[in-house]
């Protein structure tokens, strides 16, 4: 009996020793700072590849026809940081596009096969822009050194109020599981800067998903989902409502403190009816695409 009592007391004592250890707080989640920190003399090279398919179906009564357009764009952009403010913001930088190509293959209405792809130089090839902080305007202002400032693609870049701003970064520390949302103004500037579409509203959510190794570098994987609604600026087809969605994410190099790569899948489209002498023709346009970006960096003097 005494032996059993001692055994019970011993078990109780061991339990009391273990309880404090079990009651300890769980380790605090790891924090990762998601904020750009450029340096004077630093340069970034962005290799961008974009593929899109535009499918247009027109219907009149029981008859219908489909046209397909496939476009591949490859562009390299280089940002050279020349000056920073006391707070670390870029106040002068040179942006160049050393290479840019566009390849298009089409299948016309009534055709059964795609035509041969045709590759041309992209509009941005060879373009060069100097961005400088204007203290009076309190904004970065562009000066086109090379390229066509009136061209559609370069004009989009020149309209940017914050050309080096990454709206996906919350500029604070985050932990796995945290979510955040860029402002609608951020989304409009980045994705809605298009004369062809009147921007209406947008929703976007970013989430810190996991920490993992990518090419032997410790990275935080961030996902995002985006939806934009607007109106197509085309009175001839009735200014139809248009919807655009994107899902994807990027890898943030934790030690280096910068984006390593990103990938996006996009969808969009609209439907409308156009009156013709033969009756109402129904148009349905579907857009599907993907974008990938790889970033490399060079420090000053290296």
SSE topology sketch:
Blueprint: H1 2-23, E1 32-34, E2 43-60, E3 63-84, E4 90-107, E5 118-121, E6 128-134, E7 139-146, H2 152-158, E8 172-174, E9 179-180, H3 184-191, E10 197-214, E11 217-232, E12 241-253, E13 258-276, E14 279-298
Antiparallel strand pairs: 1-8, 2-3, 2-14, 3-4, 4-5, 4-6, 6-7, 9-10, 10-11, 11-12, 12-13, 13-14
Unreliable stretches covering 5 or more consecutive residues: 1-19
CATH class: Mainly Beta
Helicity range: 10-25%
- Number of DSSP-assigned strands: 14
Describe the structure.
- With 302 residues, this protein is mainly beta.
- The protein has one domain (31-294): Roll (Lipovitellin-phosvitin complex, beta-sheet shell regions), CATH 2.30.230.
- The chain is built from 3 helices and 14 strands.
- The strands form 2 sheets. Strands 2, 3, 4, 5, 6, 7, 9, 10, 11, 12, 13 and 14 form a 12-stranded antiparallel β-sheet that branches. Strands 1-8 form a two-stranded antiparallel ribbon.
- A hairpin with a 2-residue loop joins strand 13 (258-276) and strand 14 (279-298).
- The longest helix is centred in the N-terminal third of the chain and has 22 residues, at 2-23.
- Mean pLDDT is 89; it is low at 1-19.
Provide keyphrases for this structure.
globular; 302 residues; single chain; Lipovitellin-phosvitin complex, beta-sheet shell regions; twelve-stranded antiparallel beta sheet; 14 strands; mainly beta
């Amino acid at each position: 009996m005494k032996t059993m009592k001692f055994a019970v007391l011993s078990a109780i004592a061991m339990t009391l020793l273990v309880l404090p250890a079990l009651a300890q707080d769980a380790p605090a989640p790891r924090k990762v700072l998601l904020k750009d920190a450029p340096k004077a003399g630093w340069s970034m090279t962005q290799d961008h590849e974009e593929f899109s398919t535009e499918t247009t179906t027109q219907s009149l009564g029981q008859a219908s026809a489909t046209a397909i357009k496939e476009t591949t764009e490859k562009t390299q952009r280089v940002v050279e940081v020349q000056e920073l403010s006391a707070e670390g913001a870029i106040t002068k930088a040179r942006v160049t596009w050393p290479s840019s190509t566009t390849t298009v293959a089409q299948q016309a209405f009534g055709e059964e096969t795609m035509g041969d792809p045709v590759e041309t130089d992209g509009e941005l090839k060879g373009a060069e822009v100097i961005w400088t902080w204007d203290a009076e305007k309190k904004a970065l202002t562009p000066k086109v050194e090379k390229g066509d400032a009136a061209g559609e693609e370069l004009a989009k870049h020149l309209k940017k109020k914050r050309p080096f701003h990454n709206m996906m970064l919350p500029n604070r520390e985050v932990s796995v599981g945290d979510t955040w949302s860029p402002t609608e103004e951020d989304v409009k500037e980045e994705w809605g800067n298009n004369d062809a579409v009147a921007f209406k509203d947008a929703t976007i959510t970013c989430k810190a998903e996991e920490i993992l190794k990518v090419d032997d570098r410790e990275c935080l994987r961030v996902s995002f989902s985006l939806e934009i609604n607007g109106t197509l600026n085309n009175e001839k087809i009735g200014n139809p409502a248009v919807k655009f969605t994107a899902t994807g994410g990027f890898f943030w190099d934790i030690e280096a403190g910068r984006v390593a790569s990103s990938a996006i899948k996009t969808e969009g489209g609209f439907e409308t009816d156009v009156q013709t002498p033969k009756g109402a023709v129904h148009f349905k346009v579907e857009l599907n695409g993907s974008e990938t970006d790889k970033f490399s960096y060079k420090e000053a003097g290296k």
